[in-house]
Design brief:
alpha/beta, 4 domains, single chain
């Protein structure tokens, strides 16, 4: 065993002969390919050999092992050092050029532009500078500074990795020292058909709640629960993240995540040997509730999509229909195509269709296409109900979206909507239809034209009842822990017997009992939470007013709920330390994977058709620079720059 261990240790260190055999060099402790610039994760000979033979077979054929390959590898090594030497040369001339290089690279990355745009940016700066500084006596020196600034594609790649490494170092330090943290996980497939696993972290550091991307990890084989677990555990062990402080995990409801026996969450709980609080993404669950509308309403939606696709899938039909809408001065210039994966698509498509339904009927008659359902009273009744109810559901979805929402905020939004559904049922049963504008307008119009006929609204009340049951079944976990979540804003009205504290590690129930008993009799501290609830109420009113006016940018300027709650808890003395820990655990919980979806939008923008060959290091660096709240310290990076070690 000792001999084998010695051999393993030997081959975990980079061997100099691998440079001539496989065109790899040691770079920051990891093997770096001279041909494709890809960095492998471990110093193992078999990994290097497999990479070389699989991806660079032509190079191996053209340069057989021996002097020919040594010469070729030496030339590649010299080319690789060009970008590094340019930064080193500039550091001798002045740190300002290096700092400018980092700043330029950072801007290009934040805009999601290809690394090759660095040369284009420099050319633009030179042309602009030639005209802008024409009257300056030191114009030549300024232009020379711009010319000397390293901004090649290779330099941008290098600076991106270094900046991301700086941010990751700070991030891992704060995550490791946090009392509690939570993960949100989701996966997608990029443009190269590689599965990418996104890991988000939510934790509290000082007086701020951080909610940001931890890593984007490629999964090149299967994506079963055990595969996801291995990927996550390898990353956690590499970064030395203490999972003892992990309090909850939020995922989508995919079987590989939530399966009872082989799902990721089950396997992770077994690995940690303790119960783990896990939530299905509340936004995904709401979107699934929208789709669970039953066969009858599903048929209505199917016909709407069929008609819309028929018009928009033919260029002539689309142009003629657009002209018709323009003639009647319609609110919409065109119809909207339905996308089943977009949360708000169903409601927007139905609303647009309802507004343009008369023009759609005229256009179909003109084309000789028959859809008798568009004149059928029962079909139209269900259609206008669907328009109104999806409008309400879209409003709920918008409320659930956004960064910084606490699990309590999301839970209360869903509970409020469930109460509204009860009101909707009574509204339909009484025939008032006060909350169904489109449906009420149709019913009034129909009754005027057919005074002797009546409409069957009871079936619509049944649809709402079914929707309410779907909501209650999909949000069981949030109902189960509802009292626990309210502890963070109303500890003075919470009883310890109602709290399920098994899901929060490291909490002493006996200490919590004593602290809560003392707290409830301390008016000065109870008053702070009375004020907190008042402030949260004012914030909710401001958001509602701004949402009504569609001032989304102004809404983002308002103070976040989690920051306000955290500030209140931080004001308590250390005698309530256990209560504070419970609140920190609750504040660190994810309620949705909204930011994962946001990260995937960035992923599609960064790794698009024009730059689909990004390496794993480059992609992870670009994502981290775009999706973290930490700023890059360019001056500090320039000071720490050292000459790359020779090989």
């Amino acid at each position: 065993m000792a001999k084998r261990k010695s051999r393993d240790d030997e081959y975990r260190n980079f061997q100099k002969e691998w440079t001539d055999l496989y065109a790899f060099v040691d770079r920051y402790g990891s093997p770096h390919c001279l041909i494709c610039s890809e960095t492998l994760s471990s110093n193992k000979k078999w990994n290097l050999e497999r990479h070389f033979m699989k991806k660079h077979a032509a190079f191996a054929t053209n340069y057989p092992e021996g002097d020919a390959r040594k010469k070729a590898c030496k030339e590649l090594q010299q080319q690789m050092n060009v970008g590094q030497n340019s930064l080193l040369t500039c550091s001798k001339k002045g740190e300002s050029l290096n700092s400018a290089s980092f700043a330029g690279s950072y801007s290009i990355i934040r805009e999601g532009k290809p690394f090759t745009d660095g040369d284009y940016v420099k050319r633009c700066m030179l042309k602009i500078g030639h005209e802008l500084f024409d009257e300056f006596h030191n114009k030549d020196k300024i232009l020379q500074k711009i010319q000397d600034m390293p901004l090649s594609a290779k330099t941008i790649h290098e600076t991106a990795v270094k900046m991301a490494h700086q941010i990751e170092k700070v991030q891992m330090q704060k995550l490791s020292t946090a009392a509690y943290f939570s993960f949100a996980l989701d996966e997608t497939t990029d443009i190269c058909d590689i599965n990418q696993l996104c890991i988000l972290g939510r934790y509290i550091c000082g007086h701020a709640v951080h909610e940001e991307m931890i890593a984007i990890l490629p999964m090149k084989n299967q994506t079963r629960g055990e595969d996801i677990l291995k990927t996550v555990m390898d990353f956690v062990n590499e970064k030395e993240i203490p999972l003892d402080n992990l309090v909850s995990v939020c995922t989508d409801s995919a079987p590989n995540m939530v399966s009872k026996y082989r799902g990721f969450l089950t396997l992770l709980s077994e690995q940690l040997n303790r119960p783990l609080l896990n939530f299905p993404c509340i936004v995904h669950q709401e979107a699934l509730c929208v789709q669970s509308c039953g066969t009858e309403l599903g048929n209505v939606m199917e016909l709407v999509v069929c008609i819309v696709n028929w018009i928009l899938s033919r260029a002539l039909n689309q142009h003629q229909f657009q002209s018709l809408l323009e003639e009647v001065d319609s609110e919409y210039p065109d119809l909207i195509m339905h996308s089943n994966v977009r949360w708000l698509s169903r409601g927007k498509v139905l609303s647009c269709f309802a507004t343009c339904i008369n023009e759609i009927k005229s256009f179909l008659d003109m084309k000789g296409v028959k859809h008798p359902e568009l004149s059928d009273c029962d079909w139209l009744l269900k259609f206008y109900y669907l328009v109104d109810i999806t409008g309400h559901l879209n409003e709920l979805n918008l409320t659930l979206q956004g960064q910084g929402n606490t699990v309590l905020t999301l839970q209360q939004a869903v509970f409020r909507f469930e109460s509204k559904l009860t009101v909707f049922i009574k509204d339909i049963e009484t025939g008032r239809l006060a909350h169904f504008e489109k449906l009420r307008m149709f019913c009034d119009s129909y009754q005027r034209e057919n005074p002797n006929n009546s409409l069957d609204l009871q079936q619509l009340a049944g649809f709402v009842s079914e929707l309410l049951m779907v909501f209650k079944s999909r949000f069981v976990e949030f109902h189960k822990h509802g009292v626990l979540f309210t502890f963070m804003i109303r500890p003075h009205k919470t009883f310890i017997e109602e709290l399920d504290l098994t899901v929060i590690p490291g909490i002493s129930v006996s200490n919590l009992e004593m602290e809560m008993a003392d707290f409830k009799e301390s008016d000065i501290w109870v008053e702070k939470f009375v004020k907190l609830n008042s402030d949260l109420e004012c914030l909710a009113q401001q958001r509602a007013e701004l949402a009504k006016l569609h001032k989304w940018a102004d809404m983002k300027k308002l103070e976040r709920d989690d920051h306000l709650i955290l500030q209140t808890w931080k004001e308590l003395p250390v005698t309530y330390n256990t209560m504070q820990n419970v609140s920190l655990a609750l504040l660190s919980m994810f309620g949705s994977t909204y930011m994962c979806e946001q990260a995937f939008s960035h992923l599609n923008h960064i790794k698009g058709t024009l730059h689909s060959r990004l390496t794993e290091d480059s992609l992870n660096a670009c994502m981290k620079l775009n999706l973290t709240s930490y700023d890059v310290n360019f001056k500090e990076m320039c000071e720490k720059m050292q000459q790359p070690k020779s090989h």
